[in-house]
Amino acid sequence: MPQMSPMWWTMLMTMFTLSLLMMLTMMYFEYKKEINYKINFNNKKMIWKW
């Protein structure tokens, strides 16, 4: 049993870290997209204003 426990724990931790990384990357990409959209929108507004 003691030999089995660390393996299971590491597996759990790896799964957790992978899911966390995926979530972070997705959030980061969404955030970038949003910023790009806002910048483009502001640029269009400025162009329209001028």
Automatic annotation (TrEMBL):
Parts of the chain that traverse the membrane: 6-29
Record bears the keyword Mitochondrion: yes
Source organism, top-level taxon: Eukaryota
Protein keywords: Membrane, Mitochondrion, Transmembrane, Transmembrane helix
Protein name in UniProt: ATP synthase F0 subunit 8
